[in-house]
Amino acid sequence: MLLEVRDLHVEFRTRDGVAKAVNGVSYGVDAGETLAVLGESGSGKSVTAQAIMGILDMPPGRITGGEILFQDRDLLTLKEEERRKVRGAGMAMIFQDALSSLNPVLSVGEQLGEMFVVHRGMSRKDARAKAVELMDHVRIPAARERVKQYPHQFSGGMRQRIMIAMALALEPALIIADEPTTALDVTVQAQVMDLLAELQREYDMGLILITHDLGVVADVADRIAVMYAGRIVEQAPVHDIYKAPAHPYTRGLLDSIPRLDQKGQELYAIKGLPPNLMAIPPGCAFNPRCPMAQEVCRVDVPPLYEVSAHGEPEHVVAEPGAERVSACHFWRECLHG
Amino acid sequence: MSDNLTLPAQQGPADVTPAEPLLEVQGLTMHFPIYGGFPIKRKVGAVQAVDGVDLTVGVGESVGLVGESGCGKSTTGRLITRLLEPSAGKITYAGRDITHASRREMAPVRSEIQMIFQDPYSSLNPRQTVGTIIKSPMEVNGIEPEGGREKRVRELLELVGLNPEHYNRFPHEFSGGQRQRIGVARALALNPKLIVADEPVSALDVSIQAQVVNLLKKVQEELGIAFLFIAHDLAVVRHFSQRVAVMYLGKVVEVGDRDAIYNRPRHPYTHALLSAVPEVEMDDDAEPRERIRLSGDVPSPIHPPSGCRFRTRCWKAQDKCATEEPPLLQISGNRAGHLTACHFPEEPTTEARDEDVILDPALQALEGSADQG
C-alpha cells in the first residue's frame, strides 16, 4: 500500500465545544489506483485529506488518534522539516479554487519553477525551462509565452491545469485532489477530469479524489469510500456501489441525484439534515435520517461489516484490507432490497 | 420541517406548450459599457452579455435556461425582473410592455414577478428575523392579507416545510437548505405569477438539493406559478422544466421541449453540453452515450466571434459559420416548437458515435500516446 490511513481521529476545539470532524477513518491507496472519497459538506472528507498532507490548521484542529502510513513511514511521528520534504516530492494536492490557490502577484512560471528551486536546488533559469515543459505537458497552448503571465490572465480551466502541473512537478507518488472540478463549467470540467485521469495513468500515481459529485466519480475511480459524520460508512469497488449500495445513506445519495435520463419524476430526498458535529447522535450517526433504522441503530455504533454480494462474507466484522465494507447493521437488507 | 417531500408523479399535459404566454421577450440585449482612456474616460467597448434573446414563458409553465458561466443566463433573469435596464429589445408581461417601465408603472407588476437567488447566505439580511424577512414584501407593497401578515407568514413557513414557530429566529440559526426555503417563502409572499429562480439549488449539498427541488416543483404545480429556472446543471433542469432554452455567449442557440433538448438535440453545443455531464451508470446495458470534449473556454463576450458564436469551438464549423449568423429556426427534422440556430446541425440523437469528438489538444495527445504505448 502506498498510503494507509488507520483509525484517524481529528477534532476541532471551538468556543462552542468540541467538533468531532473525523472519527476513526481508515482507507488506503495503491500506486496507480484512484480512490474517490465521497461525502457532503461537513462529512470530514477534506479534513482527512488535510491531515494526510499535514496542512491541518492546528490549533483549532487536533489529531487525537490514528496513524498515517505513507511509503511505510508514519507521517504523524515525523518532524515538520521531514514532513516538508514529503510534501511536494512525495505527495501533492490540487485544490478546488485555483484562483485563490495561486499567488496573484507572481507569474505562473515563477510559481511552477519555485518547486524546482526549493526541492531540487535548481537555478532560476533552469526552473523556468522546467516550468515551460510542465505547462506543455498539461497542454497549455503557447506555454513559452504564457509562462510569464499572471494567474488572472488565465481562464478557470487553464488555471486548474496550472495547479495540476504544479502538483505533478516533482512526480509525486500520490496526488490528493480536493473537488478539483467543482468550480468549473461542465464542458471544462470534463476536459480537466479526463486530463487528470490520463496523467495519473501515465505517471502511475495514487490518486485520492475528494468530491460530493457521484457522477464525476463514476468514470474515473476504482474504489469509493463514502463518508458521513466523520466516518466511512461504505467502501467498495466503484461498480459494486452503483449497482447495489450496502448502506442506506449511499442508497439515498444515489437516488437523490437528478439524472439526465429521467424527467419530471419526484426526486427521492433524504429527510432531515446532516448532524451537528458537536452532538453526533448516539448509535449510528445516520439513524435519525434513515428509513431502515431500528432500535439497535439508536444504541449500537455499527462496526465496519464485511460485505459480500454473493454468499456469506469471510468475516462478520471486516479485517483491514477487506474489499467491501459497510457500517450498517442491516447491510444485507440494504444490499438486496 | 416536513419529513419527506416526495411528491406523487406529475399528471396532465406536462410537455405541451400552453397557449397563453405570460412573459414574452424579444431581441433582449444587454451591453455593459467599458470605460477607459486617460485623462477623459470614454466608452471603449462593451461586454455583450445578452445579445438578442427571444424567450416565452407561458402561464404556469416552467422554462429552464441553461448554459455555462458567462453565457448571460443570469443577466437575462435580472433583465426580466427589471433589476437591470436592457440596452435593446422588448419585454412583455401579461400583454403589457414593461421594457422601460418607470418605477410607478412597474409597481403593480412587481408583486407578480419574484426572484429566488442562488446564495441563501447573502440573500437574507442577517439582522432581520425570518418573520420580518418574509413579511417585508407585503409591507413594501401595502398588502394586508386576511387574518394579518403574521398569520400569512406562518402559513408560508409551513408551506415551505419550516416550523411556523421559528418565526422569530434569525437566518444564522438555519442550515443552507432551510435558508433557501426561507427565500422561497419570501418569493411566495405576494402570490406571484412568475418566479425567476437563479441557480436556486446549486449552492446546496446533494441530499438537500433534492429536498429543495421537490419543494419548488410542489410550489410550481400546486400554485400554478410560472418559473424561469436558471441553472447550469442540465439534470436538475430536466427534472424541473417542461421547456428548455440553451444559451451560449449571450444568445439562445437551441430551445425546445424537454424531450427535444435531451433526446433529440440538434445544435453541436447542446450535444457537447449533454455529453459533458458526468453520469452515474447504474445499469450495465445502458446505451453508451456520445463523448465530446471541447477545447478551451467560452470566448470573451467583449469580442465575440463573428457569425455563429460557437464556431471557434465547433467541430463542424465551415467558412459560412464565420460570415453568416445562423438564425434561430425550426430546422428540418425538428418538431414544432423546437428551434435551433445552426447552419450544419447534428443528428437528433445522443447515442455514442463511431468516433468520439475530441477537440482538446491535451486529451488528443494523451490518447495518442496511450495508443502507441
TrEMBL record, chain A:
It is found in: Cell membrane. GO terms for biological process: peptide transport. Keywords: ATP-binding, Cell membrane, Membrane, Nucleotide-binding, Transport. The keyword Nucleotide-binding applies. The keyword Nucleotide-binding applies. It holds the Pfam family oligo_HPY. It is a peripheral membrane protein. Residues 5-254 form the ABC transporter domain. It comes from the Bacteria. GO terms for cellular component: plasma membrane. Belongs to the ABC transporter superfamily. This is ABC transporter ATP-binding protein. It comes from Streptomyces adustus.
UniProtKB/TrEMBL annotation, chain B:
Keywords: ATP-binding, Nucleotide-binding, Transport. It comes from the Bacteria. InterPro entries: AAA+_ATPase, ABC_transp_ATP-bind, ABC_transporter-like_ATP-bd, ABC_transporter-like_CS, Oligopep_ABC_C, P-loop_NTPase. GO terms for molecular function: ATP binding; ATP hydrolysis activity. One of its GO terms (biological process) is peptide transport. The keyword Mitochondrion does not apply. Pfam families: ABC_tran, oligo_HPY. Residues 23-274 form the ABC transporter domain. NCBIfam families: oligo_HPY (TIGR01727), PRK11308.1 (NF008453). Belongs to the ABC transporter superfamily. This is Dipeptide ABC transporter ATP-binding protein. The lineage of its organism: Bacteria, Bacillati, Actinomycetota, Actinomycetes, Kitasatosporales.
